[in-house]
Amino acid sequence: MEKRKVIIDCDPGYDDAVALLLAAGNPNIEVLAITTVAGNQTLEKVTRNALRIAKLARLEEVTVAAGAARPLLRDQVVVAANIHGESGLDGTTLPEAEYRVDPRCAAQVIVDTIMREPEKTVTLVPIGPLTNIALAARLEPRIVDRVKEVVLMGGGYHIGNVKPMAEFNIENDPEAAYIVFEEKWPIVMVGLDLTYQALATKDVKEKIARIDTPCAQFLTQVLTRFSENYKRSKGFDEPPVHDPCAIAYVIDPSIIQVRKAPVHVEYRGQFTSGMTVTDLRKPAPSDCHTAVATHLARERFWNLIIEAVKNQ
After folding, report:
1. pLDDT, tens digit (0-9, with 9 covering 90-100), for 158-205
2. Pairing label, strands 290-296, 256-260
């Protein structure tokens, strides 16, 4: 099987860490670049986390570039320290890594990578706020036609988490999200409606804890602290691991059912800013370029993650 080439734009973060481990440990994924954006924690902290995860997961040769430290138009993002801690990965142990960040900004790395690779071979996987992706599309509009697709973790078609109808990644920079969704590249929105099905239950954590590899040991730390923080902050008995769902879709789209539907981002409403307005009233028009994830094959999803950390 030909490897699927991906650029992962992230803000690690516990669930971003799971996504990176899944991508690194799956033989059908080739990570071309890791770019970072302020979100779960500040840009400096999430970039340090990305470098250290890359070292653990043997992705040290992959380009890592820092991107936007704040949204396009709004004030500095409010980080999710209540979930991810002051470091972004509190309660975990990672190797130290040289702070070897690419001198280019993340948007430039995204552009350069897409323009370098053959057309329709690179999938963009944004799993944080969409600032870098919007900047890249404005910096070089030709990438919109060259990208294979954009598979993003964000949004929700009938639920939010930081607001009644707004999800964290979209709400952090709704103007950037508006730009990304209005471009005509194929988009799969892996939102909360799907990711709330990806619960790290007791049986999953026990299976992972029995695996004797460095990445599995780190993943056990991630899921343990993530569970504690999510229970305290959100009241969930087990945490949903949002971000690896997007990677899982790229690896094997049959794991996630999707439905074509028009999606637009609200960025002006007093109570609805950050809402991903999804029209599910009737079949999508033939030219619809957006789809939303609806159902997860949970056991197959976790088997992907378990096999990935066994391989590392």
Report:
1. 999 999 999 999 999 999 999 999 999 999 999 999 999 999 999 999
2. antiparallel
Q: Where are the beta strands (DSSP E) in 127-208?
A: 149-153, 187-190
Please confirm, yes or no, whether 295 is among the known catalytic residues.
Answer: no
Does the pTM of the predicted model rise above 0.85?
Answer: yes
Q: Which two tokens stand for residue 40?
A: 């779960």
State how far the alpha carbon of 199 is from the alpha carbons of 47, 71, 176, 223, 309, in Å.
Answer: 26, 29, 29, 10, 18
Closest among 131, 137, 152, 133 to 70, alpha carbons compared = 131
- Marked catalytic residue, from 158, 242, 289, 295: 242
CA angle in degrees (0–180, nearest 5) for 77-267-144? 90
Question: What is the rounded CA–CA span in Å between residue 8 and residue 249?
Answer: 13
Beta bridge partners of 210: none
